[in-house]
Amino acid sequence: KQEVTQIPAALSVPEGENLVLNCSFTDSAIYNLQWFRQDPGKGLTSLLLIQSSQREQTSGRLNASLDKSSGRSTLYIAASQPGDSATYLCAVTGSGGSNYKLTFGKGTLLTVNP
Amino acid sequence: SQTIHQWPATLVQPVGSPLSLECTVEGTSNPNLYWYRQAAGRGLQLLFYSVGIGQISSEVPQNLSASRPQDRQFILSSKKLLLSDSGFYLCAWSGLINEQFFGPGTRLTVL
């Protein structure tokens, strides 16, 4: 059974700092990995999708990497801003017949202080 | 562009009452559709998914059911709500590469 762990559970940083959020998964046979952002009381916003054949994806100040063999992904946020404050969720889909199913971590609550 | 809608946004229901939550997607055809529940401290749990009209797969046994009467419409239902059904219900869709996009969610409180 796939398990996804996110470390740290919470992170507080001053504005302008670069930061890294970590995600690990137990079964390396994944189809893809997604990073999401969730604001309080809201739905999930997809930030980046990394397919299993890819090593990284970039969008603006965000960079996500994937090391399938070690079961790890990182989300790098450059020059953090107060508007980046949210919960960040990592999720993986299995390969083969379970490539529809997202397994989520519990998230990292990020607070960027002005 | 694609848009996903959910309603209602919030709902307070007594135990034993029925439930119907609706999700619709615009701007795409033949999407895969999903219902998730997010409960405090428990993360996101996949409840149902659908690859086409009338095709529903359930991930966990529970007090809920789902239906897909039209290509871009997904409905979550219950005949009799339990206290444990409280939570934040999220609908999502995906296309060819299984990138999932989520709706704004429905906050359900069962009293």
Can you put this structure into words, describing what you see?
- The complex is a heterodimer of chains A (114) and B (111).
- In chain A, strand 9 (86-94) and strand 10 form a beta hairpin.
- Chain A has 114 residues and is an all-beta fold.
- Chain A is 0% helix and 59% strand.
- Chain B is an all-beta fold and 111 residues long.
- In chain B, a hairpin with a 5-residue loop joins strand 9 and strand 10.
- Chain B is globular, with a radius of gyration of 13 Å.
- The chains are: A mainly beta (114), B mainly beta (111).
- The interface between A and B is medium-sized, with 23 and 22 residues.
Q: Can you tag this structure with a few keywords?
A:
heterodimer, A: mainly beta, six-stranded mixed β-sheet, B: mainly beta, seven-stranded mixed β-sheet, four-stranded antiparallel β-sheet, 11 strands
Helical fraction of chain B equals under 10%
Q: Identify the biggest protein-protein contact and residues per side.
A: A-B, 23 and 22 residues
Number of extended strands of chain A: 11
* Helix residue percentage of chain A: under 10%
Please state the CA-atom Rg of chain A, rounded to the nearest Å.
14 Å
Main sheet makeup of chain B: 7 strands, mixed
**Strands of chain B, count:** 11
What is the chains' assembly state? heterodimer
How many individual helices of chain B?
Answer: 0
